[in-house]
């Protein structure tokens, strides 16, 4: 008998930001395959006796390969179990969701997708800023700061990313941000453009650092640290108080 997989977005880390549907699926799951950023207090919602399997990937650390994660997901479901694949933030946003969906479809396993609070939205909320503003920030764009090799992607839409009227959110970009800033500056974006780095959003370790493109670039050249982070830049990054 084939099981069923629920892809659950766990939000940025605060268990109070879980949706009711996410909590329900965790309570009913026989197995939970979770990302690093979805561990800790969030897993207290899993039922007693459920298998808890860490499959998260973190830059600079040994991590399971994606094909191994997908295969493990299929194998659990093929035993007839109710499986939760717990992904940080919203699973559909830079969460390698598509590869796992394809594996389930190929194996004939049914699934559902339960959205979570995107970490970019939580970061803006923590900083006390909106992501849009009439007239001066009409557009929001989300990008990843590295490709599969860990380098800055070569196919970025640089004119769009250098648009001074857009709010840009960079995921997984601390290591490559200085290079990105150099490229953006060469495309006309001033180094004094407001920038915000939000680390460990919604957790007790949360840290917000307001700066400029140039200032944040210099900070990250000296030390990228180990905390997961988002970087926001654009006209709204200077708004609000730490």
Q: What is this entry, summarized?
A:
This protein is an alpha/beta fold.
Which strand order do you get reading across the main beta sheet?
3-2-4-1-5
Main sheet overview: 5 strands, parallel
The amount of helix comes to 25-40%
Arithmetic mean of pLDDT: 92
The global form is elongated
At CATH level 2, the architecture of the largest domain is: 2-Layer Sandwich
Describe this structure as you would to a colleague:
The chain has helices spanning 20-28, 66-78, 97-107, 119-127, 158-161, 177-186, 213-222; strands spanning 4-9, 31-34, 51-54, 82-87, 110-114, 139-144, 166-171, 194-199, 207-212, 229-233. It has 242 residues and is of the alpha/beta class. It folds into two domains: 4-114, 3-Layer(aba) Sandwich (Cobalt-precorrin-4 Transmethylase, domain 1); 119-233, Tetrapyrrole methylase, C-terminal domain (Methyltransferase, Cobalt-precorrin-4 Transmethylase, Domain 2, 2-Layer Sandwich), CATH 3.30.950. The strands form two sheets. Strands 3-2-4-1-5 form a five-stranded parallel sheet, sandwiched between helices. Strands 6-7-10-8-9 form a five-stranded mixed sheet. The radius of gyration is 19 Å and the shape is elongated. The N and C termini lie far apart (53 Å).
List keywords for this structure.
single chain; 242 residues; alpha/beta; Cobalt-precorrin-4 Transmethylase, domain 1; Methyltransferase, Cobalt-precorrin-4 Transmethylase, Domain 2; five-stranded mixed beta sheet; 7 helices; 22% strand
